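[retry 2/3] Transcription termination/antitermination protein NusA: previous attempt timed out, resubmitting with same input.
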Amino acid sequence: MSKEMLGALDALEQEKGVKKEIVIEALEAALVSAYKRNYGQAQNVEVEFDQKKGNIHVYAVKEVTDEVFDSRLEVSYQDALEINKAYEVGDTIRFEVTPKDFGRIAAQTAKQVIMQRVREAERSIIYNEYSQYENEIMQGVVERRDNKFIYVNLGKIEAVLSKQDQIPNEEYQAHDRIKVYVSKVENTTKGPQVFVSRTHPDLVKRLFEQEVPEIYDGTVEIVSIAREAGDRTKMAVRSTDPNVDPVGTCVGPKGQRVQLVVNELHGENMDIVKWEEDPSDYIANALNPAEVIAVQFNGDSEHTCTVIVPDYQLSLAIGKKGQNARLAAKLTGYKIDIKPESEVEFVDEDDSQDEGAVVEGFEEETTEAVEGFEDQATDSAVDSEEQPQE
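[retry 2/3] Transcription termination/antitermination protein NusA: success.
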């Protein structure tokens, strides 16, 4: 048993990276419990594992006292002196009490401890590996599904794609290859669990990082993303290089770059707009493809503005079921109230400096990669904190 034990410990350390000392410590603790359980002994015992020979020794630990009240825990001072005259009251003495048949129990216990440590080591390895991919994209294969979840094989682990993380109307079949965003990796009592998403806004960000080298190297930055998964996404970008057009860079020649992202998201419309430091210009860009006449800010309320558009552009500015305005509000962080030009009385230019800005000669700074706007309006007031409608 000794050679077998030592060989198992060496293999565990080499193959699984589990230190031999850690296993021995766990083994000794398990053997103490096994000894008390099998021999009905309640005394204070210690177990030592001889790492050279593989032998196991059980010791009863007793305290030296003037008067013995419990022989399982105490030894008299006189008896202690017969063992070694150096002992004093309060010292502890170890007496070997290893049973003759303890080897069988030790072997069974060692096997259980080693198997447990192997499972823990494997779980730890998987957790450490996949936790590095948290907030990143991975490609997986759809394995199976039930009423709540889709299970995606990521190699060494099966990830969970919940209902809320699935794109509406997107069909997932067994053996389909899909890209997913790793939203969370947890180390649970049942082992590591990986949660993935197809609806997370950062999925769009990571996809563009893969397709646009200028985003990956920092030349073009993604400032904000507003997404209603499966339908439409607005993304604001800026360039750190004045010679690089951020929108055109993301769209790519003949729209090739953005089309790769759209294809991965199964036709989700993608609006890429230029971020501007001036809030008026930024909000006007965010409402593209609608034409904006002016953006007026309400002085008594932060991050609230009124956007004036031509009457014939009102439906386009609001979008189908308010989607265009809703996404623009999320993208910019402003509560946006859209009004037609015919319902607005413009103040004098001198009085409007603190209240708003007229967007003159507004040129489109954005590219709509995928067509498909429907000009229906439901509400002209949109809160940037409103949740997406699915």
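[retry 2/3] Transcription termination/antitermination protein NusA: The longest strand covers residues 177-188.
[retry 2/3] clearing retry counter.
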